[in-house]
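Page 42, continued from yesterday. The earlier attempt failed because a stray header line got pasted into the input along with the sequence. Redoing it now with the clean sequence only.
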Amino acid sequence: MTEHYKKTYDFFKEQGFVPLDDTSYPLLRTYSGYSLLQEMGAVMFVVWHYNYFGLYKVMRGYLCSVFFYEGREVYFTIHAPEKPEHPLAVIVERLADLCRKSGLPALQIKFVEERFLPEYESLGPVETVCFDDNSEYAYKTSDLLDLSGPVNYYKRKRVKKIAAMEGVSLRPMTAANIRLCAEIEAEWCAYQDCAYCESFTGCERKAIEAFFDIFDDTIHKGLFLYLGEKPAGYIICEKISEKLSFLYFGKANIQDGFVYLIYMMFKEHVTGVEYMNISEDMGHPGLRRFKRLLSAYELWRKHIVTF
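This time it went through. C-alpha cells are written below.
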C-alpha cells in the first residue's frame, strides 16, 4: 500500500475495521443475497481482495466496507441486514463522521442499485453518478437457452459449431480438479498483453487462484470443456436464489467455447433460475461486443453516491 492511503487505512483499523480476505467469506456470504449486483457479492469481495486493501466492520447489523484501490478515491460499500433494526441514515451519519475524522473530503458509497437509490437520496445533499461501463449485464435464462430466430444467430451458430466438434466433452468441476483452471488461464494469458489486461481490474489469474481457497461444489457450479483429453475451457457459476445466478469466471482456448459453456451450464446444471448476471464490461471493447452479442440482455445499473 502506498503512503497516500496508509494513514487513512490505519485510522479505520483503529476504529475496529478488519482486513477483508478469504477468511471473511462465511460472514460476507450471509449478506450476499441483499443485492442483484455481482460486484456486491461475497465471491467478488474475496477474490479481488489482493487488489484493493479492503477493510470491513459490522455496524448495527450493517456490513460496512472501505476500499483503498490504487489510483481511485477511497470508497465504501454498505450491505443491509435482511431485517434492519436501525435506519440507513444512522449508518451513513456514522460513516460520514469517520470520514471527517480521517481527513477524507467526502463519503463515497459505491454499487448502489437503482431500486435503493431513492433511500440514499432522501438522506441529504448527495451527488449521484452512473456509468454504462460499470453497469452489469443480466440475461433471462429463457433467452440464453433460446437458439431460434435471427436474433439468436450468433449464439446458435457457435453452440452448434462446438457441439459438432469431434472430441468435445464436458466434465464437472470439483475441489479435486479446480486447479486445472490455472492451466487454462495460463494458456489464455500467453496470448494477451498483461499491461492492457491488468489495467481494468487487476490480474484475473490472481483472482481465480484466490477463488480456489473458497470453492465449494455444494454452492458453486463449475464445468470444464475438454477437447480430447486436454482441458480447453472452464466456467464457474453460483445460483443465489430462484431469481438470480452469477457467472463469476470463465475462459475457453478454443474459439466460441465459452458461449457453449454458458449455454450448457444453464441448460443442464444451473436450472430453475430467472436471471444470469455476467457482470460489467469495464469499457473493454472485446468484452462489450461479446456480452451484447451473447443474447438479449438488460443493463443493471449501479450508482456511485457521494455525501
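Notes: The first strand starts at residue 18 and ends at 19.
Reminder to self: strip header lines before submitting.
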